Amino acid sequence: MSKLFTYFIPRMTLICCSLLFLSCASQLSTQRRVEIAKGINFPLLAPHSFGDSVALTQLAKVNYEKDSGEQLLFRIEISPEKMTVAGLTLSGTRLFAIEYDGSKIISEGLAAILDKIKPQYLLADIQISLWPSKVLLKHFDEQICVSKENCLFSVDSKSGARELYQNNKHLFTVNYLADTRDAQKIEPMEKMEVSKKLEVIHYQRKYRLMIKNLEKESIESSNE
Question: Who is most buried in 125, 146, 180, 219, counting CB within 10 A?
Answer without folding.
Answer: 125
